[in-house]
Write a structure and sequence with these properties.
The chain contains 19 helices and 6 strands. The protein is mostly helical. The protein has a 4-stranded antiparallel beta sheet, sandwiched between helices.
Length: 463
């Protein structure tokens, strides 16, 4: 039972990463829309979200789940998706449902490619051997499967539409729930699934789905869920970081000022908040639950006062600046942000002082050791990778090695060989053990460099 649950969780982890990759195009969309508002000679990019984002989901999901021949799996996903769209025109009352359709196309294409990529055929059909056979089969299978899957896909579309109808008159409550759940699922890396449903599936407006899609399509009843994230990233968590910094003894502050300064700037400018959250996430669960609750409160207040906003990457100043031209009541974001600054500061400062929460052995020190300089980044990554590999039980204990934006996602043969303390001493922000074979190492910024170095070591040790 434990193994089954662990395998299911690993699948959710991969799915979460797969739907994150296509979202990397959204910052460019926000920038393009800002250009439209600044210069009328540019055409709006709004149709992109409704027409092409589901297709990008199909490619991204297929690329993530394909074990080999990623190109063939991605092409198959495109063909699967396009055939489904054309078939939908023949089915009365049935229409594509955005991201879900793209995700289904990507998964089906990847499964077929993984199963039949080594298929052998008679010599006179040699052209269709191997991955080309899988691609050809994907196209054939997509015709009946699309028809059979439409009720299932349609159910998710109905679920998104119905959930929006329920929350339409109570959007502030829905925003509160979204804010809380979004933060509570962050420690296990599943918040991207929550974001995907809310931002790209929930609700329907002239063929555009989700908070983001409907917002850029001009729906007046969209954009209420995402606005509350800006006050947290730009004001709330930086205040929490300042409060934690001030709880250190004066003689120790000079040792951690770089850590907190780096984390605050990153949160304010880009909206990436994990370096701050990881400082207290593993030290005080109460503070993290309070943070999740306050995130919900921020979303509730901004939604209640009809703040309509969207972000392409994260709720930082960059997105707020470029999205200002098509954000309603943007001044409320800064007002609520000032409120959150005060609340976060006193909640964190008083709780740490009253309950004597010890931060000196928290990830604060380890972040300082993990910050590389630009000139020594490759060497730093290599050393950290070697130390991680040793702490994980060596290359022979690794089964799968992957990463998302801020953390390594690993499958090991024997989790008892994993040394948590050694990993933390290397500079990791936290370690999560999921089941008997799955480990997450939260690194924060720079995870790609460490992953690349670990892959080099892993491949070398296989020789």
């Amino acid at each position: 039972m434990r193994e089954w649950l662990g395998g299911g969780f690993l699948l959710l982890q991969r799915f979460s990463k797969a739907i994150l990759t296509p979202l990397m195009v959204l910052p460019f969309f926000i920038f393009a829309e800002a250009l439209v508002n600044w210069c009328t000679t540019f055409s709006s990019a709004a149709p992109f979200v409704a027409l092409y984002l589901p297709l990008i989901f199909a490619i991204g999901v297929a690329a993530e789940f394909a074990e080999d021949n990623v190109v063939h799996a991605s092409i198959g996903a495109v063909a699967f998706f396009v055939i489904g769209v054309n078939e939908s025109a023949l089915l009365s009352g049935v229409s594509p449902v955005g991201a879900v359709h793209g995700i289904v196309a990507g998964i089906c294409s990847a499964v077929i490619c993984n199963k039949f990529r080594n298929m052998r055929v008679p010599s006179y059909l040699m052209f269709f051997e191997g991955p080309r056979f899988a691609l050809f089969l994907t196209i054939l299978v997509s015709i009946p499967v699309n028809i059979l899957m439409w009720p299932v896909i349609g159910y998710f579309g109905m679920l998104g539409t119905e959930s929006w109808h329920i929350l339409r008159t109570h959007h502030a409550i829905g925003a509160f729930i979204y804010g809380v759940v979004n933060r509570l699922t962050l420690p296990i890396g599943l918040h991207h699934i929550v974001n995907n449903f809310v931002c790209f599936q929930m609700g329907d407006f002239e063929g555009s789905r989700g908070e983001f899609g409907r917002f850029v399509a001009g729906d007046d009843m969209s954009g209420f869920f995402m606005g509350g994230m800006f006050p947290i990233a730009m004001f709330g968590l930086p205040a929490a970081a300042l409060a934690m910094f001030l709880t250190f003894e004066r003689k120790k502050r000079k040792n951690v000022v770089c850590v907190f300064g780096y984390a605050i700037v990153l949160a304010v400018v880009t909206g990436i908040t994990e370096p701050i959250e990881c400082i207290f996430m593993y030290v005080s669960p109460f503070l993290y639950f309070a943070h999740a609750f306050l995130t919900g409160v921020s979303c509730y207040i901004t939604s209640y006062f009809h703040v309509r906003a969207a972000f392409g990457f994260a709720a930082g100043f960059v997105d707020c600046f470029f999205g200002a031209a098509f954000t309603d009541n943007i001044s409320v974001i800064y007002i609520v942000g000032c409120m959150m600054f005060v609340v976060y500061f006193f909640v964190f400062f008083l709780f740490i002082k009253l309950f004597k929460v010890e931060l000196s052995e928290s990830p604060t020190k380890r972040i300082l050791r993990s910050l590389p300089t630009l000139t020594k980044r490759n060497e730093k990554d290599r050393r950290r990778a070697e130390q991680y590999m040793k702490a994980l039980g060596g290359s022979g204990n690794l089964k799968e090695l992957d990463a998302c934006t801020t953390r390594l996602r690993l499958t090991v043969y024997d989790v008892s060989l994993v040394n948590n303390n050694a990993i933390l001493e290397t500079g990791a922000l936290g370690v999560n053990r999921l089941g008997s074979n799955y480990v997450q190492i939260v690194i924060g910024d720079g995870v790609e460099g460490v992953l690349k170095a670990m892959n080099h070591i892993w491949e070398y040790d296989k020789i």
